[in-house]
Amino acid sequence: MALLTDPAAVAGLVVREVHTGARDGMPTRIAIARRDYATDQADLWDALTTAERIPRWFLPVTGELKVGGSYQLEGNAHGVVEECDAPRRFTVTWEMGPQISWVQVTLTPDADHTTLELRHEAVIDPGMWTQYGPGAVGVGWDLVLMSLGLHLASGEAVDPEEGLTFPTTPEGITFVRVAANGWADAAIADGDDPTVARTAAEQTITFYTVEPEEGSQS
């Protein structure tokens, strides 16, 4: 990102936590990302919930952004708005293929900033967790929160093509490495084996930063 002069510092703006939970009798893991933004609660809420503004830092979205309404992010997740307490909190299902998880965003205003807390809860596939850990979803959210910060700071849209290629640039690799290791630290704090968590972080870094070879088959 042209405006990202210190990727390690920007990745360090996010406070990361991992917790163990349960939903409908199934064990879950909850990835929590928390970051402060130098704007008021109303502006941050508008950036997060206005269909015309969301693509400036994330993806085009269609649907009804109200309780009970369905949404679709272009080329990404879809789901249902389960809760909306403007301008404080919203909760949505996060559905991709057969997988469903839950995302809750809470905004807490302070004197000169607003704290955004994002909680992503998912029923865990043990094999996937061992392979990638919380960074599988966490690093993706780190990149989204980075783009949101760039948009809020400039008022301009973030170039989506630049966003897609960013993780494979030298600055992006630094950002992803700091973020993935931060998620490993959070998983270890929640009781994960340190060696497994560190190995998962390295695999997450590779997933985000290594471009697939041209002509390779998935």
TrEMBL record:
Sequence intervals crossing the membrane: none
Q: Where is each Activator of Hsp90 ATPase homologue 1/2-like C-terminal domain found?
A: 41-148
Pfam families named in the record: AHSA1
In terms of CDD domains, this protein maps to: SRPBCC_CalC_Aha1-like_6
Give the protein family: Belongs to the AHA1 family.
What's the protein here called? Activator of Hsp90 ATPase-like protein
Biological source species: Nocardia pseudobrasiliensis
